[in-house]
Design a protein that fits this description.
MgtE N-terminal fold, Tetracycline Repressor, domain 2, 3-stranded mixed β-sheet, globular, about 65% helix, mainly alpha, about 450 residues, single chain, 20 helices, CBS-domain
Length: about 450
């Protein structure tokens, strides 16, 4: 049978059709045409039964690569459908850090079955990583490291790498340690290869290379790697002894997970695990409804404010025409400022101590934006309702914009000080707050300008 090479978009339909026909040979040929990350994406879209069937059609080496590309929740579903022999072989081949990532928030029966299927050495490493705090570097680092003694020559170090490198996850960055395994610095494999064989390793050590403690937040460590262009980051314990390396692939995953969570929270939803296309309608709704209910309750403030100023509206009904314009503009400016603040916090560009500077900066930005928008707003207002109401709209718009930018820029920093995820108090929450307070500003401005 002749098979034409399929594009990534064609594989899902063809593979699903082959599985529905129970044509396992055709399905296996289709899987053999695609790289691991494409296969992993397709498995994540399938129901659990079809995903296990397709996974079992893969060659052993290919299966490991595909498995490592899956999200933890999808890995757990695959494991539960494997027989004991295949189960043990798969979990034994995984790197310890990948294994721990899979077991994060896994059901107890999954954890027990995985640990029971491991050799004593792999079980010990996995248990050690699980012992670190959740979200710490220790949960993501690899303990399989080739460390070089500080007293070796370049030739001896390279011999050591050849002897031990096959058991390590990475050998690009080689930590240099003393007799007590305390970290002295690092040396790159490239430096060893290009240096004279009789030269001392200590002469090549970068003693000022960044390092982190195993209990430090993994996100902070990953962003440090990005800032310093580091491929592998040494991880030490409280006594400066080397315990592992955070590799660049794991750092990328940490940042991706953190950024994904921030984006989801900024949209007013709760994060979920697994592939979007595999999630049911009920699952998606369940993760969104809690925040929507909270925002709905918070939005009642807007109703209360409008009710409190009912007499003002009765006297000048034309004021009601501009309510959507004012609260919409204020909400948008607040959301922009909040998004910028969350991003700056995530990248380490601002700190809690910068709060006074942020307040002053965002207030001025809001006033500038408000002035520009008020020019257009007054022109439109004059055309529709006259100069007096237009003046109210223009003045209120400047004040609301300044207030909205200040609130949006400072709320994430205040949340950070209170040890709350800044993304939680971002766009939707800021918009709701600005809507209510913006109405107060508008009606008070109307009373002052119109002499009511």
């Amino acid at each position: 049978m002749t098979h034409v090479r399929l594009s990534d978009d064609e594989l899902p339909t063809e593979l699903q059709d082959a599985l529905e026909r129970h044509d396992l040979r055709d399905a296996q040929l289709l899987l053999g045409q695609r790289p691991p990350h494409v296969i992993a994406d397709e498995l994540a879209r399938m129901n659990a039964v079809d995903a296990v069937v397709a996974f079992r059609l893969l060659e052993k080496d290919e299966a490991i690569k595909v498995f490592e590309e899956l999200e933890p929740v999808d890995q757990q579903a695959i494991l539960m459908g494997l027989r004991d022999t295949a189960f043990r072989e798969l979990v034994e081949e995984l790197d310890p850090d990948d294994r721990v990532r899979m077991l994060h928030e896994a059901p107890a029966k999954v954890v027990q079955r995985v640990l029971a299927g491991l050799s004593a050495h792999e079980r010990q490493m996995t248990a050690a990583l699980l012992g670190y705090p959740e979200g710490s570097v220790g949960r993501y680092m690899t303990p399989e490291v080739v460390a070089v003694d500080r007293h070796l020559t370049v030739r001896q170090a390279l011999d050591h790498v050849r002897a031990k490198g096959a058991d390590a996850e990475t050998i690009y960055t080689l930590p240099v340690v003393d007799a007590g395994r305390r970290l002295i610095g690092v040396v790159e494999l490239r430096e060893l290869v290009l240096s004279p064989s009789g030269r001392d390793v200590l002469d090549l050590v970068a003693a000022d290379a960044p390092r982190v403690y195993a209990s430090d937040p993994a996100e902070d460590a990953a962003r440090l790697m990005r800032e310093t262009n580091t491929l592998d980051l040494p991880v030490v314990d409280s006594e400066e002894r080397l315990v592992g390396l955070l590799t660049i692939d794991d750092a990328v995953e940490v940042i991706e997970e953190a950024d994904t969570e921030d984006v989801v929270r900024q949209s007013g939803s709760a994060p979920w695990s697994g592939h979007y296309m595999a999630a049911t309608v009920w699952q998606l709704a369940r993760h969104r409804v809690v925040w929507l209910l909270l925002l709905l309750l918070a939005a009642t403030l807007t109703v209360a404010v409008t009710d409190a100023f009912e007499k003002t509206l009765e006297q000048v009904t034309q004021l009601a025409l501009f309510i959507p314009l004012l609260i919409g503009t204020g909400g948008n400016i607040g959301a922009q400022a909040a998004t910028a603040a969350v991003r700056a916090l995530a990248l380490g560009e601002v700190r809690g101590s910068d709060l006074p500077v942020i307040i002053w900066r965002e207030c001025r930005v809001g006033l500038v934006l408000g002035t520009m928008l008020a020019t257009l707003g007054m022109a439109l207002g004059t055309a529709f309702v006259g100069a007096q109401i237009a003046l109210v709209v223009g003045v209120a718009l400047v004040i609301i914009c300044g207030w909205a930018a200040t609130v949006g820029g400072t709320m994430p920093l205040l949340a950070k000080r209170l040890h709350i995820d800044p993304a939680v108090v971002s766009a939707p929450m800021v918009t709701t707050l600005v809507d209510a307070t913006g109405l107060v500003i508008y009606f008070l401005t109307a009373r002052a300008v119109l002499g009511m």
